[in-house]
Amino acid sequence: MSKIQKLLVANRGEIALRIMRSARELGIQTVAVYSEADRLSPHVKYADEAVCLGPPPSSLSYLLSDKIIEVCKELGVDAIHPGYGFLSENADFAKKVTDAGLIFVGPSPESIEVMGSKLAAKQAVSKYDIPLVPGTEEAITDIAEAKHRAAEIGYPILIKASAGGGGKGMRIVESEEDFEEQMQRAVSEAQSAFGDGAVFIEKFITSPRHIEIQVLGDQHGNTVYLFERECSIQRRHQKVIEEAPSAVVSPEMRKAMGEAAVGVAKACNYYGAGTVEFIVDENLNFYFLEMNTRLQVEHPVTEMITGKDLVKEQIWIAEGKALNFTQEDLQINGHSLEIRVYAEDPKNNFLPDIGKLQTYRRPQGPGIRVDDGFEEGMDIPIYYDPMIAKLITHGQNREEAISRMIRAIDDYQITGIQTTLDFCRFALQHEAFTSGNFDTKFVEKYFQPDVLDQSLSEKEEELLAALAVEFFLQEKGQEKKVGTTQEVASGSSAWRKRLKIDG
Ligand code: ADP
Ligand code: ADP
Ligand code: MG
Asked: Start and end of every Biotin carboxylation domain (predicted)?
């Protein structure tokens, strides 16, 4: 066992800050790395020491594994936390780190390698009793053979890149006549995006839910599950709203999924924090999708309902400590929601919207947590993921977590760029969401850009209200006096609520 004294966080933005906060609480010194685009970022200021890696593109900065290891040697760092994205699921990097005599805060390179390939992962878990989506168990290259297998599985099917990730590298094929073209595209995309053209076929589950299980394993063979996260609200196969627990998972289903997830972890001798993703069909049958061998973006909702700090757990596990609790000690406390606030324009196909954060005020109050990596006045760089912040709420139950989230969205003030805040408000207020009766098709089924115009945001209403006051006063040709008030009738309740002017 070796106590970590100085930790380098090989990441940026909200996750770098979030990791450093836990490290500080543990009395560990922190080192930030950054690109030229992130010179003024909060994660750089927060760290005890910071080193510039190079120009903005991640291939010239955050992905420079050798340079990062060099920095560790120069500064006497003894451990690296990779966060998510970037080098976090790179087995070669994990190996280099360990070979350099440093601690990698994450699983072994072997676990990363097996689970980094969706095909190898399926093979590894096949010895265990874990349900898999019907499909091919190996890479498929021959078109005729592939067509034959697809027909057996039954359309619609999904062609998936074995090395895919981040919602990329998937193609739905509705019928046989489209198969050949889609297959060719899938292979060439997989080759160019992931440097590995291996693809396989899976039954496309038409109205699935995405439910995943958080696991923690130590280096002494103890593995527990920290319940589920429901992540079905997605756009482009990428999550936007997550919650724990799921509205549809019963205690029996939770136990079955949890035990399956522990099985997946054991199948690759997993230690550290990891996430086992499942796809769930309309009849609540669940199938193993993949394992993410790192801290997940949406880990805070699990922290809120379990009271565990997953980054501290990762650090303790990396130091060689045994878990100091068992499965029986874990309990679900209340309900938690997370929304990802992206710099994207929901009215324009969720295209990234880059610019300056002219106004940036975080919501506050009971049950609210904001994990972000920006300050007012900063530019959102074009080089990285367009996520600005994660807004997390915790409540005694689902209703409270939702109403708290809507309140927090209303209190969040962001101008200068378009964000997904209004979209999230729309989703949280939708009957399908409040009833819990939704799947990964939510956006496709219910969302058209004009729904956002119909329900004006509070901010816009405020602005309109202010304009209306001005108009009203001009019309009447009189100055606003303090003292008496009069409600101005209007169609909008917010107008009525706010427009208390004298007359
Ligand atoms: P999560 O379930 O945590 O959201 P994602 O698969 O969405 O996991 O990925 C988390 C982060 O890692 C995102 O910022 C995403 O853009 C990035 N990421 C994941 N896989 C890849 C990949 N293969 N190539 C590039 N970025 C990736
Ligand atoms: P990634 O590595 O990109 O995260 P996943 O295999 O986890 O890839 O799939 C991402 C998302 O794509 C899932 O959350 C789900 O919405 C959708 N998806 C994946 N596999 C299937 C399937 N067989 N049927 C229907 N949807 C799927
Ligand atoms: Mg996934």
From this structure: 3-448
